[in-house]
Amino acid sequence: MELGTVIATRPNKTIYRCGDALIKVFGADFSPADILNEALNQARVLESGLPMPKIRQVTRLDDGRWAIVMDFIEGKTLDRLMRENPDKHAEYLEKLVDLQMLINSKTASMLSAQKDKFNNKISSTKEYIPATVRYELHMRLEGMHRHNKLCHGDFCPSNVIVGDDGTDYIIDWSHATQGNASADVARTYLTFKLDGEDTLAEKYIDLYCLKSDTAKQYVQKWLPIVAASQVAKNKEEERDFLLGWINIFDFE
Predict the structure, then answer these.
(1) What is the pTM of this model?
(2) Cβ atoms within 10 Å of 38's Cβ, excluding its own
(3) Residues 16 and 5 sit within 8 Å (Cβ to Cβ)
(4) 129 vs 239: CA distance, rounded Å
(5) How far apart are CA 88 and CA 168, in angstroms?
(6) What is the pLDDT of residues 180-230, one digit of tens each?
């Protein structure tokens, strides 16, 4: 397969453009099950009617690496636009919130349950989170309302492409689940905080809660759970920050 030109690199992934196709090539040590699950998630979410690239194929390259081939979208990420036009942050933040509310208005019944994923993630953090705290996290999660809303799982400005055709496309559905929208909001909030964008983080959560009529305190109750699930990714540079968020609110 001709891969074309490298347009982005990420840990264990390289993104190529070949004509009107985007090819995401995964590192050799990437789990085939995770790759196939990402493609399956995207196919399942596509049925909701949300604007997103269509998958063309999942294939294995001659060197043994796996790749997902999908439509290439002409445009710029919302993250890039925010960096290029800091005077338009309010406009772009509103676009981000509106798109997230659109996502959360959909359902995708074949996706994994958000609570199951969080429980598994919390259980896998025993190296960093004591058993007593893990128990409190499991209990807090069990006490949260069980919903079946479509949740992106990693919704942030870099996962929105503002297309040249005027459509806002949502990408990277590898973490999608069905569950509680406020958990998705807590995840986006933490992403801003991890990137050092404290002011944007506060403006974002305030705007989402205002537009969706959601109590900010309810979103905050999800923060220790979402932080623990991120600890499970074992990124050393994030660990201390996330462990601080796990204990930032008193458990009920």
Answers:
(1) 0.93
(2) 22
(3) yes
(4) 11
(5) 16
(6) 999 999 999 999 999 999 999 999 999 999 999 999 999 999 999 999 999
